[in-house]
Amino acid sequence: MDRYIPFILLPIVTFGVINYLKRKNKYSPLKKRTLFIGMFAWFITEMGRSFYRPYIYSHNINDYFVADTIGNSFGTVTALFMIITLAGKGDKSDWKIFAIIIPGLLFYELLNLTGKTSVDINDMIATLIFGCVSAFIYYLILNKYPG
Predict the structure, then answer these.
(1) Phi, psi of 107 (to 5 degrees)
(2) Is 70 exceeded by the pLDDT of residue 1?
(3) Do the Cβ atoms of 52 and 74 come closer than 8 Å?
(4) pLDDT tens sequence across 104-141
(5) Residue 34 confidence (pLDDT)
(6) Where would I find the H helices in the chain?
(7) Closest by alpha carbon to 83, among 138, 140, 19, 141?
(8) Angle between helices 66-87 and 121-144 (to 10 degrees)
(9) How far apart, in whole angstroms, are the C-alpha atoms of residue 78 and residue 71?
(10) pTM surpassing 0.85?
């Protein structure tokens, strides 16, 4: 049952964010697109964690670390676009969010050094790659739908 909880939360969070943005009068075409990307990335992340990863692990399939890094890859996209949706202003100051969140996610991964698990370099690479891809996508969206 716990596999399905994120999928139950997905529409609730989406409607909550939309209502919040409408109350603040910030529900613009830019915010609609960033919200869609954030929610879609969250959906992909949870599909990967809940169904794809267990299937790959149980059948010993080599998928070139996709199952291992799905949380960091699409999770990075989710974090960036949801924060941009809620806190972004739709201008150049939004790049500060990228400059804070991506290193913050890398630092979070490095915190594994203090525990019993080791740092997964593949997760760090996935965070960097998908952080850069997210920045590029946001750049394209911001040029088409400013503020």
Answers:
(1) -65, -40
(2) no
(3) no
(4) 999 999 988 777 778 899 999 999 999 999 999 999 99
(5) 97
(6) 5-23, 29-47, 53-58, 66-87, 94-110, 121-144
(7) 138
(8) 40
(9) 10
(10) yes
